[in-house]
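Worked example

This section walks through a single chain of length 297. The input is the sequence exactly as stored; nothing has been trimmed or padded.
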Amino acid sequence: MEKIVPHFWFETDAKEAVDFYMSLFEDSEIRTVQELEGTPLGENTVAYEFNLAGQHFAALNGGPNFKMNSSISMTVHGKTKEEVQMLWDELAEGGHILMPLKAYDFSEFYGWVEDRYGLSWQLIYTEGKNDKQKIIPSLTFSGTATGKARDAITYYTNIFQNGEIFEVHEYESGQASSEEAQIAHATFEIMGLEMIAADHPETVDYQFNEGVSLMILCVTQAEIDYYWDKLSAAIEAEQCGWVQDKFGVSWQIVPMNLSELLSTGTRKQINAVTEEFLQMEKINVERLERAWEKAAE
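Given that input, the structure is written out below as tokens.
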């Protein structure tokens, strides 16, 4: 089971977006649906967990509080140019093209697009290579975070289990117009999830925010405590398991069984768990489980 899960924040159209994404990738399905009542986000607060290409993702109808941007995108490896073109045609319809699909110095066939729902995708032809992970979360450091990609991947691979940096490519002279940009492309892995990081070569300002976050699924309270201490760098961002790290990236540090507590049992039990975790900053597993059990009496 995956321990780190990319999470997407939508205003109201999470279900429509999730259905659309599942139509594009094989081995895709809904895992759970969590209908939450009594939240400050409004009546239409629904959380989804789902698979795309066999990988675990999550989404939320959270209202207008946060908007996704291109600071975190999903890079998709296409085995054929036809596959890349198909995905491009679907994702670009009604969206915004950041880099046209064409040949570049670094790739024979590549494009970067923000889809109609606001999620950013990088599509690249991998010449038939069999990758263990088709969709790779990719961090782009821009604005005040430009130049911090190297520090970030070093930090992440040190604090997470099985952290490993695979390759780091620096910008050559003249490749980046931003003086702070150093890393053109780096790949690394934390807790079994392969990721990409880069400094944006231009002077743009795509700030990391809660629009796209990374959920850490923890088995024990000790795990929650550990990652909370290592990652939380902004007190004002601490709420309901959410933290923001020193690079600006948002994380959700939650118990592995939170999805089960919010999607099984009676409506009374689900509401009791919801009410309990809405009062928390750092999640307390025992309190959530006790609320679920008490509501079952």
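What to look for: The first helix runs from residue 14 to 24.
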